[in-house]
Design brief:
The chain has a single domain (about 5-215), classed as P-loop containing nucleotide triphosphate hydrolases (Rossmann fold), CATH 3.40.50.300. It has about 230 residues and is an alpha/beta fold. It is built from 8 helices and 8 strands. An 8-stranded parallel beta sheet has the order 3-2-4-1-5-6-7-8, with helices on both faces. The chain is globular, with a radius of gyration of 17 Å.
Length: about 230
């Protein structure tokens, strides 16, 4: 776990769910954690929606210049978002808006990012139309790398269908990310699964889990208005 981590991905990839869980796991390791919500693109499923929960866990969360309750959707980021660069004992996790437009906001932190060892993680959902093929993932990956002048350091497989997710979906995503890894050299770092799916996978001896890190998650962002499957 590097001190600064930028979480990116196409809209709907589940990057915010990963960022929230990553922040909680870092806190469980005894680290001081700041989660910075840089999503100025999508008004739904954002880290700031779980501000109270995170603060109760001792995790700071910074978002726009106006706080959560007032003018929350204005694309104006707070100066506090630079704070992780000024505190070497903090872990800073940046939840970045979807695709190249959302990711462009990182450009204003280029100087700070250049001074740090940074993880740039690309979250991939192989069940999204734009990223269900190798070509689709590579297209978005290369767009973001070119626009921001970064190099991704890891892939996060988050191939799912919400409550209808099966083990097959998980392995579909593993295979897709392995293809991306073979073409780019960017390693598959994490495979996101719920505890329920994880238990099913490890109980089957035919499943080859060698060299895979299963990142068990809680679904913090599932809204109450979504139907139960």
């Amino acid at each position: 776990m590097k001190r600064i981590c930028c979480v990116l991905g196409h809209s709907g990839s589940g990057k915010t769910e990963f960022a929230l869980n990553y922040a909680v796991k870092a806190r469980d390791l005894g680290r001081k954690v700041v989660l910075c919500d840089l999503d100025v693109i999508n008004p739904y499923f954002r880290s700031r929606e779980r501000q109270e929960m995170l603060e109760n866990l001792g995790i700071r969360i910074y978002s726009n210049a106006f706080g959560y309750d007032i003018s929350e959707d204005l694309p104006a980021v707070s100066a506090q978002l630079r704070a992780p660069f000024d505190h070497s004992d903090w872990v800073g996790i940046y939840d970045v808006g979807g695709d190249r437009m959302g990711a462009a906001i990182l450009n204003q932190y280029k100087k700070e990012l250049a001074r740090e060892e940074v993880d740039y993680l690309l979250v991939v959902n192989g069940n999204r139309q734009e990223t269900e093929t190798l070509e689709g993932v590579l297209f978005h990956l290369r767009q973001m790398e070119t626009d921001m002048g970064i190099s991704f350091t890891g892939l996060v497989n988050n191939t799912h269908l919400m409550d209808e997710t099966t083990e097959g979906d998980v392995w579909k995503g593993v295979n897709l990310c392995k293809e991306v890894e073979e073409n780019t050299g960017i390693p598959l770092r994490y495979t996101m699964v719920t505890e329920e799916i994880f238990q099913k996978i490890i109980k089957k001896p035919q499943n080859n889990t060698m060299n895979l890190y299963f990142f068990t998650v809680k679904l913090f962002l599932k809204s109450s208005w979504l139907p139960k499957m």
